[in-house]
Amino acid sequence: MTEDTREARTEAVRALEAEFGELVNRFRRIITENAHRVSPGLLPGAYKVFTTIVRREPVTTSALAEILTADKGQISRTVRELEELGLVRRTPDPADGRSSLLSPTALGLERLAAARAPQEGVLVDALQEWPIEDIGNLTRLLHALTSGERPGL
């Protein structure tokens, strides 16, 4: 790789990093707002635990800690908080009597839908003028980046 190519690649990666920074900041604001709409005072971390339970249900506390790469004790405390708020429930794990399965409650799903409603369609609207092929390419490239794979061309 020539020095000019290396510099151009470095600049391109720096520009990408800056755009990701803006995107992360925007999503943090959305997650914080959604967390407060689900339950006033709910922290973004607890919202992340809750939405992961919704996506992965039923899930054990251990699996949840692994998925979120978090301390099992912290996850347990957060799950208790979500239970007290009536957002999640535990049921016995038929495969392991020492473990419980976590699932969202009807109230939890209702509150999550209401919390997400103000942002529903924002991404669809933002991409309204994009060709579907470009959306597919962006998705493919982001998957390659997050999985550490080389994108197929």
UniProtKB/TrEMBL annotation:
The lineage of its organism: Bacteria, Bacillati, Actinomycetota, Actinomycetes, Micrococcales. Coiled coil: none annotated. GO terms for molecular function: DNA binding; DNA-binding transcription factor activity. Pfam families: MarR_2. SMART domains: HTH_MARR (SM00347). InterPro entries: HTH_MarR-typ (IPR000835), MarR/SlyA-like (IPR039422), Tscrpt_reg_MarR-type_CS (IPR023187), WH-like_DNA-bd_sf (IPR036388), WH_DNA-bd_sf (IPR036390). It comes from the Bacteria. Keywords: DNA-binding, Transcription, Transcription regulation. GO terms for biological process: response to stress. This is Regulatory protein MarR. Residues 17-147 form the HTH marR-type domain.
